[in-house]
Write a structure and sequence with these properties.
346 residues, 2 domains, alpha+beta, five-stranded antiparallel sheet
Amino acid sequence: MNQTGLDKIMGDEDDMRVALEEAIERANAMVVEAEIANVELSQIINSSIDDLLVIYRNFTVKRINVSMLNFLDMKQTEAVGKKCYDLMPCSWCNTAECPLTKILRGKTSIEVDIERARKDGVTVPFMFSATPLRGIDGSVIGMVAQFKDITERKYAENTLKEANERLERLSTSDGLTGVANRRCFDQTLQREWTRLQRTKDHLSLIMCDVDFFKLYNDAYGHQGGDDCLKSVAQALQDNARRGGDCVARYGGEEFAVIMPATEEKNAVYVADKIRQAVEKMAMAHSKSSVAPHVTLSLGVATVVPDDPETPESLIKRADEALYRAKSSGRNRVVLWEPLQDVQPKD
């Protein structure tokens, strides 16, 4: 081999060595960049105040941030590499509702409210969200799961819900006695009328008045009158206790009881139980000409709701029966019946 050939071979070797060194430098630089990226990613994940998990498609936990570790009361070495269903068993594990299963099947995002129990047993509400984790080629290789503590949001929601329920109760109940108010009475009567019109069942209504209540107020004052009405309302509630019954303050000292699916004899029975219950309270009424204590007069009416009739006609009949009870001596129950025309004698 001549000198020219030798020089060529040596030159080729030098080029190969340089190329190899450059490749090694590039590889080292890539490793360093990868390590830096890994450190940066860890810092980003750990800087999140929300709990974060990176889970691979085989359900293995690849990454977990400090916030999540604190919630689970675990070290990183205890969590990374475990199956997510062993680390945090959920109701959706091994079902079609599993978020990772949905992500792998093409779901692009998941968001749902859940509850998780800490090791001390305290249950914490979270908003769980998941998005796909993609590989270099763009294919889904797992998911990124985020758990956002929504304790404050849930507290606000529950507070608002309770406030709305309280407002609803106030809008349908009488402020003094606690029974249904006139608005609730009207709504309930119309609703039951419509329902029983379909089922062809009986609807009974009791109307009652405290006898000589104006005189009672004059004698015992408005506070005494209020206490009397509260006691009467309690007597009505204690004796009209079926699920569908509605006790309402109709106005002033007048009360009403709506009794769905109740025939007249049963309604009269309940009305008399109410009357007796008020008598047994023995609330003194020195101005009454009926008895030395508070008494009630009650009117009862029963119909099977039908098109020619209306809820107002039922109220009118019960009111007429109440008027007859008061005009015939008070402290009694009268069932509405059509008045018979009296034929003149020859």
